[in-house]
Amino acid sequence: MSRFICSLVAFFLAFSWDMMVAATIMSVNHRNFKTTCSTILVVDPSGGGNFKTIQSAINSAPQSTHNWICIRVKQGVYRERVYIPFEKQFIHLTGAGKRKTYVVSDGHVPLDSTATFTTRAENIIVEGISFINSYNSVGSSNRMAPAVAAKIEGDKSAFYDCGFFGLQDTLWDSNGRHYFKQCTIEGAVDFIFGAGQSIYEKCVISVIGEALKGDVGYITGQGRGNPKETSGFVFKYCSIVGNGKTYLGRPWRKHARVIFYKTYMSDIIVPLGWDAWYNAGGQEKLLTFEEIECRGPGANTSGRVKWANKPLSTRELQRLISLSYVNAGRWLPPESIN
Fold it and tell me: Which leading EC class covers this enzyme (predicted)?
């Protein structure tokens, strides 16, 4: 086990195929809610389940079903890339906890196909698993490079008690409506980026800015391309902690939208708060970068750039921070959002 994984573990301190449910529907209690499963698969690296790898379990799942396929992933370190294609919908992955179940790989080139975990399917739920891109792990001699831990492309995807660990471009929140609850996301440069329409609730944003050796990092790189797009990142009741210095974000596209609502900010936030990047020169007005009722030593907005924190109307603010922003059609399990 690498020094990187060991440090994470130190920090965080069966069924056969013939016996799996085929015709009988079962209700399975998870940490956050109950799922009605048509099939239950068990992944155990020691051989005590149906599969030894997560990918082999996903490959066995039927295509285009509207019945939940529940995959239980036992405690362990899984050194593999996991890919859920578009046709493998209604998959519920449950690990033993983000301090116990790890999926690790070190892909970095090409960026769009080397993430440790990639999902393109709709209706995906993941609980209690950490996804790590170890390319720039502690002690690595590799130059810092974009290296994605997870790429989320499918609509209606939810993550509970999960971890996403990397350095640059950790979590590619690419497209679709997504919900992250009580997750940990770690990195230093643009480590939450993409054009997803997402709410992050009660998540820990962990900055490892000391790895930049004096350079300033960026938490978000949001990719809303025009004012008609519905995408945006909303952080509710989160905590920003870590080391080094960081901006809250910079725009990946010209109409980027990021909101921090009632979030704790440690003193690692630089006073300016935000960087316009290539939106400078008068185009800053296209951006929606907001901090609302935040607290902590890094939440003082008196030194922020003048073009950020433009007042939102009460109606617009409520629209964006409401769960309905991502939960139209009520696709999230009701018990999971309390």
Answer: hydrolase
CA distance 140 to 308: 37
Of 20, 69, 74, 82, the residue nearest 47 (C-alpha):
74
If one counts every other C-beta atom within 10 angstroms of the C-beta of residue 265, the result is 22
Q: Read off φ and ψ for residue 127, nearest 5 degrees.
A: -130, 140
% of the chain residues with pLDDT over 90: 81
Element of type H or E holding 137: none
Asked whether the beta carbons of 217 and 209 are under 8 A apart, the reply is: yes
How many percent of the chain have pLDDT more than 70?
A: 89
Asked if the peptide bond before residue 297 counts as cis, ω within 30 degrees of 0, the response is no
Catalytic residue among 190, 215, 267, 275: 190
The Cα–Cα gap between 55 and 12 comes to 25
User: Between the CA atoms of 81, 128, 88 and 25, what dihedral angle is there, to the nearest 10 degrees?
Assistant: 140
- The answer to whether the CB of 47 falls within 8 A of the CB of 81 is no
The pLDDT assigned to 139 comes to 75
Structure tokens at 69: 């396929």
Mark whether 173 is an active-site residue. Answer: no
Cβ partners under 8 Å of residue 19, min gap 6: none
CB-based contact 89:121 (threshold 8 Å): yes
pLDDT digits (tens, 9 = 90+) for 66-119: 899 999 999 999 999 999 999 999 999 999 999 999 999 999 999 999 999 999
Pairing relation of β-strands 34-43 and 26-29?
A: antiparallel
Rounded mean pLDDT of 249-259? 97
pLDDT tens sequence across 241-250: 999 999 999 9
